[in-house]
């Protein structure tokens, strides 16, 4: 049986309008953010994640583990440093 | 050398998305088409101090912008105009706000001033013309103005104080 899904709106600083995605709640944040980044035309090779309010969401969590609400909105942002 | 009209076209192609982000985050901004300078006034999250972020877009996007913070009132370079860097939580990355030769710098692949050709901190990155190819699991990547602003804002959110 397929896991339940959740629908999330994602905002990108590259576009005015959000995009809406429906993902299994077991999906990792890292994978969902990469899918969203690709949809927004981000250059490959980054380390995208989501930001909810002012909080960075750990990329290793699942959508359920990050307690993202069905119908909620997150922002796409790349993490990492200059190193 | 990138002609000014090409740089302006590159910037303007990205402005709509960036401006939507700026409006959502209540950040005032302007892009001067004569000097090719982009400015955004951000707010330090802990102190409430207004921070003026300046991006010199000359050469964009054959090379990345030259990002720096300047004094909000005088537009002069000043250490106290900079946020003090703190790492991202949960080992998500080191701060992009660092000191290099006693000067603050945005240490990120999207800042021209971090590269060898600007006598920057990262001789190992090569020249700034290679910025779009630079990537790695620990490198932040931002290739549009909006993406850069979002990353700078993310790191600013971690800062607890401004530089002295």
Quote the average pLDDT of chain B: 95
Number of self-contained structural domains of chain B: 1
Distance between the first and last residues' Cα of chain A: 43 Å
Outline of chain A, from the CA principal axes?
globular
Query: What series of H and E elements makes up the topology of chain B?
Result: HEEEEEEH
How many β-strand runs of chain A?
5
Low-confidence stretches of chain B: none
Which word captures the global form of chain B?
globular
- Number of separate helices of chain B: 2
Mean pLDDT of chain A: 94
Features:
heterodimer, A: 83 residues, alpha+beta, Ubiquitin-like (UB roll), 5-stranded mixed sheet, 13% helix, B: 164 residues, 4-stranded antiparallel sheet, 6 strands
Task: Please render the helix and strand layout as text.
The complex is a heterodimer of chains A (83) and B (164).
Chain A: E1 5-11, E2 19-24, H1 29-39, E3 48-52, E4 55-56, E5 73-78
Parallel strand pairs in A: 1-5
Antiparallel strand pairs in A: 1-2, 3-4, 3-5
Chain B: H1 4-24, E1 28-32, E2 37-43, E3 50-56, E4 66-70, E5 97-100, E6 103-106, H2 145-158
Antiparallel strand pairs in B: 1-2, 2-3, 3-4, 5-6
Helix pairs in contact in B: 1-2
Task: Give a description of the structure.
The complex is a heterodimer of chains A (83) and B (164). Helix content of chain A is 13%, strand content 31%. By secondary structure, chain A is of the alpha+beta class. Chain A has a single domain, classed as Roll (Ubiquitin-like (UB roll)), CATH 3.10.20. A 5-stranded mixed sheet of chain A has the order 2-1-5-3-4. In chain A, strand 1 and strand 2 form a beta hairpin. The longest helix of chain A is centred in the middle third of the chain and has 11 residues, at 29-39. The mean pLDDT of chain A is 94. Chain B is an alpha+beta fold and 164 residues long. Chain B has one domain (4-158). Chain B has helices at 4-24, 145-158, and strands at 28-32, 37-43, 50-56, 66-70, 97-100, 103-106. Chain B has a 4-stranded antiparallel sheet with strand order 1-2-3-4, with helices on one face. In chain B, helix 1 crosses helix 2. Chain B is globular and about 40 Å long. Chain B starts with a helix and ends in a 6-residue tail after the last helix. The model of chain B has no long low-confidence stretch (mean pLDDT 95). Classes of the chains: A alpha+beta (83), B alpha+beta (164). The A-B interface holds A 11-16, 42-43, 45-47, 49, 51, 54, 56, 58-59, 75-83 and B 14, 16-18, 20-21, 24, 45, 87-90, 92-96, 98, 106-109, 114, 121-122, 132, 135-144, 146-147, 149-151, 154, 157.
